[in-house]
Amino acid sequence: MSYSVNELKDELVKTLSAEYGYDASEATILQMYGTVLTVVQQKLLQKRGEYTEKMKNSDQKRIYYMSMEFLVGRSLKNNLYNLGMEAEMKEAVKELGFDLETIYDMEPDAGLGNGGLGRLASCYMDAATTMGYPFTGFSIRYEFGIFRQKIVDGWQMEQPDNWLEMGGFWLVPRRDESKEVHFDGEVKEEWGETGLKTIHKNYYTVRAVPYDLLITGKDSDVVNSLRLWSAESPSSFDMGSFARGEHIKSMESGNRAEAISKVLYPADDNIEGKSLRLKQQYFFVSASLQNIVQVHLRTNPSLDNLPDKAVIHINDTHPALCVPELMRILLDDFGYSWEKAWDITCRTLAYTNHTIMSEALEKWDLTLFRHHLPRITSIVEEINRRFCNYVYENFPEKRGAIGSMAAIGDNQVRMANLCLIACFSVNGVSKLHSDILKYDVFKDYNDIYPGKLTNVTNGITARRWLNQGNPLLADMISSLIGDGYVHDLSKLSELKKFMEDDSVLAQLADIKLQNKKRLAKYIAEHNGFQVDPNSIFDVQVKRLHEYKRQLLNAIEILHLYLQIKKGATIQPRTFIFGAKASAGYYMAKEIIRFICAISDIVNRDASLNGQLKVVFLENYRVSLAEIIYPAAEISEQISQAGKEASGTGNMKMMLNGAITLGTMDGANVEIHDVVGPENIIIFGMNAEEVMDLGRRGYNPWDVYNNNGYLKEIIEFVQRGG
Fold first, then answer.
1. Nearest residue to 658 (alpha-carbon basis) of 546, 494, 540, 563
2. Where are residues bearing N6-(pyridoxal phosphate)lysine located in the sequence (predicted)?
3. How far is residue 278's CA from residue 286's CA, in Å, rounded to a whole number?
């Protein structure tokens, strides 16, 4: 469907009058922001209605993607681009006296994710929708996101991210499809007409209210939805307590329920935080599975064929409760036998693993688990009993491994193990990562379930990170090879014929410089100092974690600083960092403070003559990444080999013309194989060498004494600079 400038302008004028009672000459920029969003949302709702009607007669298998995170960024620009009306809307808004870029900047990033896990989920949604698949995402409508990062004297401060105030407009409430989720209580067995039944009693109820974020695809008739659950209490106010003067107590039930959907990843270094995280996971899993079952039964007489009509994908271990919750629904709500329920469950669920680190393979204290989820606990215990018996009877050579493979052990419920036992497919997210899973971390499962563990290397949607984030480069590419690459990225290989074309290379260099100037302008506005766009922009932006080795990058900066102070001359270089540390991750926060301290020392030293600058950009997010990636020239992908499951920042920056400096880790390995060693800079140990060093051990004191550069840096830090 095409949209003319005049048609859009007429719709904007009518909507502005209907919603606010003003014409364009009287309207504020905030009112125009709301008007533009309203017009776009109406077009999405119309397309969604048409697609929903079409799907009523479709036998296409549905994809349900369960993830605690969806890092969608801003929606307005993405929707306009996918609807094919960005240029027309820009002109229509301009003719009414406003600037569309200013309106873009008013929209906050949706507070629904934090890192690569959530961005992968969003890229999948975009790609699946563009390709015409019926794809529904499920998560939580976090009121305050993860947090808004503020750097104060080098320290990360966490502030509430009230994104719903300006970003909640995109969410379509569906209160009529609310679900009830039950916590606590106890489980009793009672004889009924159909035999022995398990009854969950004396629980408290949380109401899950759905809000739909509509997702468009490029050149596609499909409009899918990301369904986000908000937690409410069925009785949020106790009039009796209030009447007795117990005013705080009268609101306790409402506060207890609403806390579930307040923030993403509440700090879990205390029992209250652990309890809240467990409730969050069960809350969104239970509500989502109830929803999936309801949708299935609209067009099917029973759940017998659920595996043929739907696949439910578990993105990391956070939604692993899908396994026992689907069993609970089948057993308790629909009366299936254990064997039949287990067959349906195992053929419906798939799982993506995102890490090999044991601390990230979630484990729940069994006592806490039983307290909040008594019925789920009894189901997990039965799954565990049957699995252990199965291995003992059928794989005598694995009897010694049963303890580590079990779903319950050491008074803990092991969520990754639960997925490995139940899901029909388990994938890693890069070839290296998947090989480590198959032949090391999950080797015993791979032996008894041959073919279950596979590899699906992570990817990105180039439409977001090239066409929208770097329109100058996208337009140039389209002028050279056409726009077929928008739907088939392999067509970018056609650019090889321009490798020796001086005019094309000059144009590329000019585009890079313009993007660097844009980022330099942002740095000046937000960090208060100037950086040279003609310097090399060396970029490391990603979640802050020790294994990602931002600390190694910081040490390299100090090395360069000390060499310059001794008279060396280098190509001017600007190091750019962006990262959030988890609220309870003290060491990660210390690394941020260290980087900021280096920035203060380097940027204030006039004797460097502009050869070195260090920038830490606070509150790293998708919309900021869209400014950083096009400007990057060196892409730091330097995780310790064997630790990074995949990584996608490496892909996004390389797509925008940056050179990767990295280790043979995650997707770097496959990128190296595709582009060749001449187009990627690799250093350090490989994964096998790292594991061998870990087995042999080493003496840090010897490293310190035998590496003059490192010793000089550490002594400089010890002196306080």
1. 540
2. 652
3. 12
Nearest to 179 by CA among 65, 294, 67: 294
Q: Is the pLDDT of residue 434 over 70?
A: yes
List CB contacts of 558: < 8 A, sequence separation 6 or more: 598, 713, 716, 717
Within-domain flag for 389: no
Residue 431 lies in a domain: no
Per-residue pLDDT tens digits for 255-284: 789 999 999 999 888 999 999 999 999 999
Bridge partner residues of 453 (DSSP)? 426
Domain extent at residue 707: 514-718
Kindly list the catalytic residues: 354, 542-543, 548, 648, 652
Q: Is 410 left (phi over 0), alpha (psi -120 to 50) or beta?
A: left
Q: How far is CA 328 from CA 212, 309, 322, 337, in A?
A: 26, 20, 10, 11
Euclidean distance between CA atoms 33 and 80, whole angstroms: 14
Mean pLDDT of 625-651: 97
Ramachandran area for residue 146 (φ above 0: left; ψ -120 to 50: alpha; else beta): alpha
115 within some domain: no
pLDDT value of position 254: 67
Distance of CA 611 to the CA centre of its chain: 36
Q: Is residue 461 part of a domain?
A: no
Distance, in Å, from the CA atom of 721 to the CA atom of 713, rounded to the nearest integer, reads 9
pLDDT above 60 (res 112): yes
d(CA 339, CA 342): 5
- pTM as predicted: 0.94
What's the one-letter identity of residue 451?
G
Alpha helix positions (H), 321-470: 322-328, 338-348, 366-372, 374-394, 402-405, 415-422, 431-436, 443-448, 462
* Domain final residue pick, 77, 106, 135: 106
The structure tokens listed for 178 are: 């609310």
Count Cα atoms within 13 angstroms, Cβ side, for 60: 15
CATH of the domain at 524: 3.40.50.2000
User: Into how many domains does the chain fold?
Assistant: 2
pLDDT at 356 > cutoff 90:
no
Nearest to 543 by CA among 321, 271, 360: 360
Length of the chain in terms of residues written: 721
Helices (H), 614-686: 622-631, 649-655, 668-675
173 by DSSP, 3-state: which? Answer: strand
Reported as a single tens digit per residue, the pLDDT across 561-591 is 999 999 999 999 999 999 999 998 999 999 9
Last residue of a domain, one of 78, 106, 134: 106
